Amino acid sequence: MTAVDDSATARQSDPSPTTSPTGLRRIVAAAMVGAVAEWYEFFLYGTASALVFGEVFFRSNGNAVDGIIAAFALYAVGFLARPFGGILFGHFGDRVGRKALLQLSLVVVGITTFLMGCLPPFATVGYWAPVLLVTLRLIQGFAFGGEWGGAVLLVSEHSPDHRRGFWASWPQSGVPLGNVLATVVMLVLSANLSDAQFLSWGWRIGFWLSAVVVLIGYWVRSSVDDAPIFREAQQRLDADRRHALGIVEVLRHHWRQVLIGIGARFAENILYYLVVTFSITYLKLAVHVDTAPILALMLVAHLLHFFMIPAAGLLSDVIGRRPVYLTGAVLTAGWGFLAFPMMDTGNYAVIIVAITLGLAVESLTYAPYSALMTEMFPTHVRYTALSFCYQAAPILAGSLAPLIAISLFDRFHSSVPISLYLIVAAAISVLAVGLAKETAGKSLRSVDAEAACADSGPGVEGVTAMQRDMA
Q1: CA angle 358-47-143, nearest 5°?
Q2: Three-state SS for 177?
Q3: Residues sharing a CB contact under 8 Å with residue 299, sequence separation 6 or more, in sequence order
Q4: 375 in helix, strand or coil?
Q5: Euclidean distance between CA atoms 385 and 376, whole angstroms
Q6: CA distances from 203 to 53, 189, 195, 214 (A)
Q7: What is the C-alpha end-to-end distance of the chain, expressed in Å?
Q8: Residue 458 pLDDT grade (very low, low, confident, very high; cuts 50, 70, 90)
Q9: Which of 175, 318, 445, 468 shows a CA-CA span of 20 to 30 A to 195?
Q10: pLDDT tens by residue, 68-105
Q11: Coil, helix or strand for 411?
């Protein structure tokens, strides 16, 4: 039998992981709670950038837009460090284990977020205020770079092949849940404090509460372990003595998948940050909606988003990753032309529909991403590959989206250029996903076997032996 035949056989006969339903739900909870903690902290920064940081950490020149632009510029800085964190955390996560690196990432993000709440304002220390803020933001972004890949893999590698899209989408649901938590905290504070109190010290409480969220997440994650398929790959890696930096192998042997993984995120990433971050600014500046109603509207939308993500993940198991993803990317192109005029009405019911539609469209491109990426890369470099693709894309996509959007609005005083910007993002993702192969239902062991077959190093006999070991 040839190596190619062995690969096909492995794909057809490989059983689903043996993790019990109860064990799988516990693993999902562990992955989600960390995601909630880290996204709470990350989106707390995004909300504060739109509402607070422009006035607290930068010199006032009488133009509120300039302060917001400066805050969004620092918001983007955190994304620059994320790919480097993804590479480092991914490298050791592929060798030491997913769980250990997830715990470390959680603690570092929690510490930096707490310290952000302790920073003095510009009025007290001058330009040291933005310098300290950007330093903590870089450290936070670096640690955050290792979170998503590890959380997704902790679930994906335990999931049955025919339902990986559903189960692997649950860590993604930690994003809106973390955002709900951040929004609730900011909503309670802004509703019960005067504007002066909120700007002076009230916003800091949300950052200090991160310590509680991190402790809960750390405790829950301590009860789970890495999947058997990872431990098998780790043993093979030790036997082959392959200890080169994982990103080198990823870029050398899997560069096509990397380009697909980065390009696929453009529509989802840009749309999401326009909906959850820029919309706050747009409603405040263009529609003149007060802070508390904006946060209340976002809270409702995030709660709905929590349920949309696993629904879209399940749909990707039923009809395939690519159809769901491409539908979402195409709909992204039209959201701005519909949503911004809806927001301009000032009617709260219409505004919530516009925001919810954006998150529903985003779910179609976000939910299948975790399973699609898991099924594109072999186990021994999967953490590195997923983290790099997921964290590299926002440098050109989501990190710049609020800054580009507010700059376009400031120059043209219209939402049309922002909507055209979304069309470009959607086109990039349609092209990327169009080049990908359908992976729904694929065995992860067959992914490893195919990667070994493509590697000229082991040879046909070595590949066959590897496949027998994985059977």
Answers
A1: 100
A2: helix
A3: 180, 183, 184, 187
A4: coil
A5: 9
A6: 10, 7, 10, 18
A7: 15
A8: very low
A9: 175
A10: 677 667 666 777 888 888 888 888 888 888 888 888 88
A11: helix
- Please give the helix or strand (H or E) that residue 265 lies within, else none: helix 255-273
Quote the pLDDT of residue 218. Answer: 83
Check the CA dihedral 229-232-236-238 and report its sign.
positive
Output the six-digit token pair for 464. Answer: 């066959």
Tokens of 431: 């092209």
Domain ranges of the chain: 25-440
Q: Nearest to residue 47, comparing CAs of 202, 158, 165, 154? A: 202
Closest by CA position to 330, among listed 301, 354, 304, 365: 365
Kindly tell me the number of DSSP H helices and DSSP E strands found in the chain: 24, 0
**Chain centroid to CA 75: how far?**
15
Cα Rg of the chain (Å, integer): 22
**Rounded to whole angstroms, what are the CA distances from 319 to 133, 163, 290, 315, 363?**
45, 12, 42, 6, 15
CB 315 within 8 A of CB 370: no
The helix (run of H) or strand (run of E) holding residue 76 is helix 64-93
Angle made by CA atoms 260, 265, 269, in degrees to the nearest 5: 170
CATH code for the structural domain at 25-440: 1.20.1250.20
Worst-scoring range by mean pLDDT, 45-49, 222-226, 316-320?
A: 45-49
Say whether pLDDT at 242 is over 80: no
